[in-house]
Amino acid sequence: MADKLNAVKGMNDILPPESARWEALEQTVRDLMGRYAYRNIRTPIVEPTALFVRGTGQTTDIVEKEMYSFEDRLNGEQLTLRPENTPGVARAAIEHNLTYDGGKRLWYTGPMFRHERPQRGRYRQFYQLGAEALGFSGPEVDAELMLLAHQLFQTLGLRNIRVELNSLGVPSERQAHRAALIAHFQQNADQLDADAQRRLETNPLRILDTKNPAMQPLVEAAPRLLDYLGDASRRHLETVQSLLTACGVTWTVNPRLVRGLDYYSHTVFEFITSELGAQGTLCGGGRYDGLFEVLGGKPTPAVGWGMGLERVLELLKEQAGASAVPVPDAYAVIPDAAALARAMPVLQQLRAAGVGVQMHAGAADGFGSFKSQFKKADASGAAYALVFGGDELARGELTVKALRDGGGAQTTRPLDAVTAWAATLQSSAPKETPGSSRASLLPSDHGLGVPSSAPDQSN
Q1: Residue ranges for the binding site for L-histidine?
Q2: Are 91 and 295 in contact (CB under 8 A)?
Q3: What is the pTM of this model?
Q4: Which fold has domain 330-425?
Q5: Which of 10, 199, 211, 254 has the fewest C-beta atoms under 10 angstroms from its C-beta?
């Protein structure tokens, strides 16, 4: 016997019925993106390694430690499985001149790859949802994208999510802050851990992102970038804040929020929950006006965010409890192989009319008894059983038996007029497996838990 092969560590199969939760989430996303006039873009999973070295930043953890990179054996090209998709979207926009006739609002979803320690909601292959607005320089688009993420969480019924934001200003302001930051950390070099010492000269802003508890007092005492912002940068941030407030979104300024990538400028933000342990960031993003030039394009303002779908689904499980999963409208009871030639065309007509039908499938020793088939029909969650018995088929009919409501009521239907009665099998009630709590997969009757007291919205 050949050795058993398993999936790569940190790269997971998504199986039924869990896949139904993914499908429902993806449908919600598609509907919402359309309402905000964002259009879908699909970029390759494999990109040139240089795209992420230049676009994400050579000194970031992603590029230094986490990318799956390899050499193309045919031509020697250096390639990488995408660890994120913002550089890929920017590359596609440059390559196809997408913004030649004005700004573009885009969204995407798909697998990303990072070689890091797998943990809850954080895997080596993970699925990311992203939204990018290209060619818009005004702070109103920063606010619009944050409102889009906020609306998605509200539509999903997720609660207790806080919004943190900050400003990284423009390059000249960051350079002045960088110099002050280096001086501060050099004066306290004995308190720096090995990672911070390595980053001191290459990317000192990333030291503010440290998770080392021993360094938190030093980080808290460090110069704040907010204090180095000029008037234009302050107005940009204040406009974003005022628009969020006008739309009822609660926010807090976090002066230590820097995000982990090199391409950000002006607004940066995160949507955070405390209900998933250490992996509490559900969505993060910001403005990246300099990325297009770094990738060889014309100066193009841009802003966007990325969201880990595994974390969103984990939070849905925590807050929504039992979940509905799709079930068929009807289950076809097939007495023997001789009935298939009459039954299967009927099932095809029902499916074409929008009815979900699961057909009983036989085994080597036959199709089983009616009793055993009805047990499977009941377990399927279907509302009706369609019985293709020999007597019924001889009369050109089938029997429809109610499995849920109606006390097992039965009626017969003609085989030559399927479309006339197909709609009677479609239930308007939520489709769910037997024994579920009828909790909606994507409830919409909860907000994000706006606190009764006003948040800290000062700079």
Answers
A1: 84-86, 114, 128, 132, 259, 263-264
A2: yes
A3: 0.83
A4: Rossmann fold (3.40.50)
A5: 211
